[in-house]
Structure formats: C-alpha cells, structure tokens
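Module 6 notes. Inverse folding takes a fixed backbone as the condition and produces residue identities as the prediction. Think of it as a translation problem where the source language is geometry and the target language is the twenty amino acids. Below is one complete input and output pair. Work through it position by position during the lab.
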C-alpha cells in the first residue's frame, strides 16, 4: 500500500494492491533445519544465530547501520554467530563515491574495532541457493531487517513466515507488516545502539521470541499466503479485465 500510495492520480485510484504471495506451507518453521558454513560447520536452532539478508549489501537496506552496530553486538553476545547474506554489487542507489563496494568499505571501517576471536563469528556467505537461505531463516534466533522507505523485501515476509523473531527498522513500508511488540520489534533506522539493545533483549527472552515469531507467521498466513489469499485475489483481478 505504501508503494501504491506513491503513484499520483489518476493512477492511484485504479491500482489494486495484491502481493505475489508466500507459500507458507514451504516457507515454514522447521525444528531440524541446519545451515552449513563454508568451513563445514553446521548451525542449528541450538546455536545463537543472528541473520541479516540483502540481495546486495548496501545502504538502501541498512547494511551500513548493521555493520556499525556489529562491534558492540559481538562484544555483548560472545556466543552469537552472525550470518550475512548478499552480494557485493548494487541493486539500488549507487556505488561508494571512493570506489570499490559497500561490503568491503564497511568491513574496513569496523574491522579495527572487532577482535580476531569475535570476527571469526562473522560469516559473509554471499548469494546462496534458495534452499540454503530458507534453512538459514529457519534457524535464525533473531533476524535483522533494515530498509530506507522503499519497496519491501521478500526476505522480510519469508522471515515472518518461518516464525523468526525480527528486529526491523521503523520505516515505511516495514510498519505495514510489523506492529511493534506484536509481529516483531521496531527500531529507528539510524539508531545502532537501539538495534543492539533490541537484538540482545530478544536473544535473552525465549518467550518473547516465540510469541513474536508465532504472531508474525500467523499474520503472513492470514494476509499473504499464496494459495488461500494472494492467488485467488490475482485470479479475481484478471477476471475483471475481460
């Protein structure tokens, strides 16, 4: 609805908002999910896994905010494994003015503040096959999603569908999906300290994570399920075109 609202009249009143749909039977919680790192180690739901997913790691999706919060997050969570998914190209916006890519630029900025022992718990896995990405979402203890006011990522809806506990930016259109304290926890986009505090608070509260994850999945099932909601709406819309 936020995206549709950006269109001027006379177009806006002619637009129907129908999501592509999430197959919630496939994108679902899985207790035995396992994600294998490049060194062969397997992560499961027993591990304290923090996830961050972008198509490409860049400011539009808050990569700079997450990275600048990473030193304190690692210090406060000595057992956490942080897994970042995404390429080093540009999907939105532009490349850094000084050249290179956002991934390496932010690593060079924060790396001096992260001890080697902590850095070993940070895993850049690049772009991965969908089944591996899904397994990662299923083991995620806290999933962090940040974005400028821009088109919403499928990854947020999929994280909600698998029942992940989510810390997300308090920005449109995230607030269209997540009510603070109901489907996840919201934090100001640029407030790295609040991001760390919210994440650590959820990591310490299994009951809150379970509640938020269940509510998030229920929300996706009720409003964004492919087979029961979105596909019927799409078919109904096409019938109006004849």
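Target side of the pair, the amino acids:
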């Amino acid at each position: 609805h936020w995206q549709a609202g950006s269109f001027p009249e006379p177009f806006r009143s002619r637009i129907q908002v129908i999501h592509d749909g999430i197959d919630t039977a496939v994108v679902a919680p899985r207790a035995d999910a396992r994600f294998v790192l490049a060194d062969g180690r397997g992560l499961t739901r027993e591990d304290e896994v923090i996830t961050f997913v972008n198509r490409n790691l860049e400011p539009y999706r808050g990569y700079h905010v997450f990275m600048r919060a990473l030193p304190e997050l690692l210090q406060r969570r000595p057992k956490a494994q942080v897994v970042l998914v995404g390429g080093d190209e540009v999907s939105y916006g532009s490349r850094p003015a000084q050249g290179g890519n956002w991934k390496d630029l932010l690593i060079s900025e924060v790396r001096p503040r992260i001890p080697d022992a902590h850095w070993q718990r940070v895993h850049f896995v690049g772009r991965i096959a969908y089944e591996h990405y899904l397994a990662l979402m299923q083991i995620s203890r806290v999933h962090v999603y940040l974005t400028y006011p821009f088109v919403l990522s499928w990854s947020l809806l999929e994280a909600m569908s698998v029942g992940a506990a989510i810390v997300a930016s308090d920005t449109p259109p995230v607030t269209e999906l997540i009510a603070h304290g109901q489907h996840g926890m919201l934090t100001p986009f640029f407030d790295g300290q609040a991001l760390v505090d919210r994440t650590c608070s959820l990591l310490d509260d299994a009951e809150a994570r379970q509640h938020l994850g269940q509510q998030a999945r229920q929300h996706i099932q009720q409003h964004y399920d492919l087979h029961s909601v979105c596909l019927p709406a799409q078919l109904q819309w096409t019938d109006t075109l004849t």
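Reference fact for the lab report: The chain has nine helices and eight strands.
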